[in-house]
Design a protein that fits this description.
The protein is α+β, with helices and mostly antiparallel strands. It has 3 domains: 262 residues, no CATH class; 86 residues, no CATH class; 168 residues, no CATH class. 19% of the residues lie in helices and 26% in strands. The strands form 5 sheets. Strands 1-2-3-22-21-23-19-20 form an 8-stranded antiparallel beta sheet. A 6-stranded antiparallel beta sheet has the order 7-6-18-8-9-17. The chain has a 5-stranded antiparallel beta sheet with strand order 4-26-5-24-25.
Length: 561
């Protein structure tokens, strides 16, 4: 087929790929759309697709029957996405690794086609696992990295337990797990464990372990026996009626902010290319190399995906080694690349047809979709720039009274860092007459990990202290126990009280977990500076920016100037 100059220019613009890749496309597509051609990788014949990523185009994970423990035909997985209003699949490939060799009656975890690694769909973490990930940010842009995803549950008692896994059973006696409706087969939880059912952000019941299938719209938080048998400062048990907010976080090599807002993600592995360089020998890939078929120089059928410098996707399949694919990617303009599942799972789809058809049912497919209107619309997120209803009046007053600097007038619902809390504290102190006299004859205090003056001044006044070895740990989220100490000492400073803390506070149900913080918590509670959460205080919980501003205002109004 004769190819026009316009077609060649379109291919170059779409993928920003070098001339060596510009073999005649096997399928002629419209300018700017998906191009498919044959290439050679390490001496092996390959099928390659270039997929531009304009505004309104993004990735979407399709799970078999919306489950992490099922498999269906690839066409069904594509059809399910096309059936969604305003969505059209322009390209697709098989997803990550899953347990494809099953027999007999489907039983979780071993006798079903269970997904093995991390999956995010619709902005929700539905499975945890290995960390080599292709993901799509809220604006639809693709990215590849080693990323650790974690689920946590922010409880009304002030604790935020981190979950060992999502939709994967852990037998360790100290494991904490989270299950949801994407685990569609029954899972057996030992009777010695405790299951906490969460609906609409509230724990509805706490019951002994049993065999369950998770209802739609429900999370089940599981504490194994080693947690439920010992209540302490880290593992105080949730209770029915307590608030429980499920949250997800991500930590990668770079772009943590984008990864924390990721809407769709699938794990493959290994990572092949980062910053245009072959990284198959990176230690972070070693988790894959226990399988001889996955080692860098093993030749077998594989699929792969990469992101070019222009942000286009390159997707392909070839019987070659990971090292050969990575070398080819680096030579052809790919900046970030990842191997996906191989063997009988290999599948490519574009231009309304399979370019490579899989030899088995699949647990997941990564589709590249266009959204109606040219706009990717992520799920609505909480507007953290606006304070909660309860905090809004106090924050408005605090800003009007000059207690909140402009740099902190946002992200009100997020946890406050140790450093930002010091800045707020100093805004309060500097409103006092002759406030600089407070620093006279006080030795200067410096820290190796921050040069923010407000931190040093608070340390000079003995309101705050470091974490040892000359460090302050400025960016770590402040604990409620730490906030109580700082607020109590600041109040004493303004009231010109001596160093003795004497107060009677409400009886909190978790008082035995206060430890060193008990006198400070008692003082703050007795003076109505900090309040508990329900009948507990939660000393190890975090402290939000809006809570910090409200407490600063209370001190200012009662004891300031």
């Amino acid at each position: 087929m004769k190819r026009s100059k316009l077609s060649v220019l379109s291919l170059l613009a779409a993928g920003a790929l070098c001339a060596s890749m510009l073999c005649a496309p096997a399928v002629a597509a419209a300018a700017g759309d998906v191009q498919v051609w044959s290439s050679t990788i390490g001496g092996h014949s390959a099928k390659v697709m270039s997929v531009p990523m304009p505004a309104g185009r993004t990735g979407q994970v399709s799970l078999a029957n919306n489950s992490v423990v099922d498999a269906v035909g690839a066409q069904t997985l594509i059809d399910n996405v096309n059936a969604q209003p305003g969505t059209h699949v322009v390209a697709a490939m098989n997803g990550g690794f899953f347990n494809s060799y099953t027999s007999g009656t489907p039983v979780f975890p071993n006798s079903c086609p269970a997904i093995m690694d991390a999956v995010i769909t619709g902005g929700k973490l539905v499975h945890t696992g290995r960390s080599s990930v292709i993901g799509f940010a809220a604006d639809g842009k693709p990215m590849v990295d080693w990323v650790t995803f974690k689920a946590s549950v922010k409880l009304g008692n002030g604790f935020t337990p981190g979950c060992w896994s999502v939709n994967t059973y852990e037998s360790d006696p100290e494991a904490i797990m989270l299950f949801d409706e994407h685990l569609t087969l029954p899972v057996t939880i030992p009777a010695s464990s405790t299951m906490f059912y969460i609906q609409n952000g509230v724990i509805t019941s706490a019951v002994p372990g049993s065999t369950i299938t998770v209802p739609a719209g429900t999370y089940v938080l599981v504490y194994n026996a080693g947690i439920t048998s010992v209540e302490n400062g880290y593992h105080r048990l949730p209770q029915a009626g307590m608030s429980a907010e499920v949250t997800f976080s991500a930590s990668g090599t770079d772009r943590d902010e984008a990864w924390n807002g990721v809407q769709e993600a699938l794990t493959g592995g290994p990572v092949l290319v980062k910053n245009g360089a072959n990284v198959v020998d990176d230690q972070r890939n070693s988790v894959y190399y226990g399988d001889p078929k996955q080692r860098p120089d093993a030749v077998l059928a594989r699929t792969f995906i990469g992101v070019t410098g222009s942000g286009s996707l390159v997707m392909g399949t070839v019987s070659a080694s990971c090292r050969q694919i990575a070398d080819w990617m680096g030579a052809n303009g790919v900046q970030e690349g990842l191997a996906m599942d191989g063997g009988g799972s290999c599948m490519l789809y574009a231009n309304e047809a399979f370019q490579s058809r899989p030899g088995r049912n699949l647990a997941s497919v990564l589709t590249i979709v266009d959204r109606t209107g040219g706009q990717v619309t992520p799920p609505p997120a909480v507007n953290t720039d606006e304070p909660s209803a309860w905090a809004a009046p106090e924050i408005q007053t605090a800003i009007a009274e000059g207690l909140v600097p402009a740099a902190l007038q946002s992200d009100y619902r997020k946890d406050i860092s140790r450093q930002d809390f010091c800045i707020l504290i100093w805004e309060l102190i500097k409103q006092q007459p002759n406030y600089m006299e407070l620093l006279w004859n006080k030795p200067e205090v410096t820290f190796s990990d921050t040069d923010v003056a407000e931190v040093s001044w608070c340390a000079q006044l003995n309101i705050i202290s470091g974490v040892g070895e000359g460090r302050f740990d400025p960016h770590r989220n402040l604990k409620r126990s730490e906030a109580a100490k700082i607020l109590a000492l600041t109040t004493q400073l303004l009231k010109n009280e001596d160093g003795t803390l004497s107060a009677t506070s409400p009886v909190f149900s978790d008082r035995d977990t206060f430890g060193w913080a008990q006198p400070f918590i008692d003082y703050c509670a007795a003076n109505d500076i900090m309040k508990g959460e329900g009948d507990a205080f939660g000393p190890n919980g975090t402290f939000s920016r809006e809570q910090a501003m409200a407490t600063i205002l209370r001190i200012s109004q009662r004891y300031g100037r």
